[in-house]
């Protein structure tokens, strides 16, 4: 026995092992006396005033038990006593008290007077007194107060009772993440039972208060206390909008199995009735899928049942074979405009349904597809709706460096098209290709040749028209470029990159060929270097043309960051282009294309500018123009200013921002406006208030849902965030992240 006031090391540390059994589970109090906890961010507690230093353990983490006390006594009856400023250390834990007493016969440990516990992980624990039977791990600790630094969480419990291995009971427990001395919000329970073995906890008389105002109460609840998924209620969502009225959703989560779960979400819509939402998900080594359903019986406004069904399912029976099916279906054409969340939702005209079976080998892959569409725009008549592919078989092959450095490839397709009141039929398209990529330190040259064979077996054509049609033609191109660079000072260099792209395809009359799935590519800088002008096989543009382009960059030599880039290009035509999308369209006779320019500038880590322009020199008219300016310090300090113009189609501005007004107040906003139509496309304005332990957001949103009828949807969304616990109200993170480029949600 060491003398009083001495330090010692014990080879057998049963007392501390017993206490460690209690205290290593103490974070369960923090994690388990509420229904759900959201992860905390590293700087989430920057507004808090209380930041205790991390415990400083001077002893090594070697598992040895060490103690320090003013007095240590071991009597003949096997009772050990440590008295006076007792400190016990083991690994990363420190336990102190005025007095420790251990009875070996009963395997009983008692600590009295200013019992404290600290862990290097950030848990601190105070108790007036406590005892523990080490063999049964049963005991009781009085008047407990705790603080868990990583979550800035603290609380109290009148008693904590270890009730055997992995089981605890807390009486009159509380939890909050507010600074000491403040109770902006607090969660309390009259009794909490925790079972680490099952990963479950139960609580009685659970009450959540915000500024002493009760928000939620339940007399009994069963909840998870670890990462194992468990069934239970999720936090409700509350909102309000013109199209729905008051919108309240209360989801319930079902943990069906380790690889399967589901959600049922009753949703009250003040203007329309009660909707039921459901989601089912599964995941295994060979399959994954998600199914979503919304059903609204007898919509009070629409006067009929409404529904939406979305599915996405994948199977991988082998490493090379994959089956994927996805799609969506709505009950009526107005569903998306009534319940969609954005202009892109409400302007959707077709919903795709598709099933793909694919096989992937080392150098080739094969796809079998069934595809059709649901048209949700009543103004689109049958002959203008997309064709169904029933079925489609598509083969792709690629054999790089096959012989003499030549890259070989093959694309082959057979597809059967179907559509009501239209020409239908089967199309076979085969296109082998060969290219020879040559490259040096400052140059590249890639000649390529393709041969395209396309055959049609058609039905529904006018009388006297040949139902069997075919087209054969070669497609050739040569792509070449040079790279020059020069130093700009000590840390940057500038490049000059001229590029030529020659393309030749002979003319074939294709006016008799149907146009099943082919449209003309939009003209932009990338299109200058494509050897195809159409997206599908039904049209192959004739071409005898040369693209000339020049790009210059300024690059940081040390980091490789591109600080500035400008590109300029134009196509020069040596012959008229006679192949057009529609029969009877006149040939294109200009001897050159529009001039396309792109530029991007990043002067530092915060600022970025980019823009494009497309100018027709023959008409001296700008056809397209885009510009975007962004200032971004972090996810909460970002400003975007954008402009888009397309001749005779759109002329729009877009301003969005997220910016702190003070240490506690932040503002967010977006204004998208059509100069062409002189109307708003979307207005979003909101404020966010933050404190140490809670935050609140209120956002007003107005967006266009029907451009023809000039109809808008308006709503006010509110969200209360209780840091370290969860949020109440409408989840606004996705809405703000999608509307404000560069914004990052903290919650």
TrEMBL record:
Lineage: superkingdom: Bacteria
Keyword check for Lyase: no
Keywords: Cell outer membrane, Membrane, Signal
GO terms classed as biological process: Gram-negative-bacterium-type cell outer membrane assembly; lipopolysaccharide transport
Keyword Membrane tagged: yes
A GO-annotated cellular component: cell outer membrane
Residue span, LptD C-terminal domain: 304-665
Domain Organic solvent tolerance-like N-terminal: residue ranges: 69-199
Chain segments annotated as transmembrane: none
Subcellular localization: Cell outer membrane
InterPro entries: LipoPS_assembly_LptD, LptD, LptD_C, OstA-like_N
Function of the protein: Together with LptE, is involved in the assembly of lipopolysaccharide (LPS) at the surface of the outer membrane.
Protein family: Belongs to the LptD family.
Subunit structure and binding partners: Component of the lipopolysaccharide transport and assembly complex. Interacts with LptE and LptA.
Name of the protein this chain belongs to: LPS-assembly protein LptD
Source organism: Ectothiorhodospira marina
Taxonomic lineage: Bacteria, Pseudomonadati, Pseudomonadota, Gammaproteobacteria, Chromatiales
Gene that encodes it: lptD
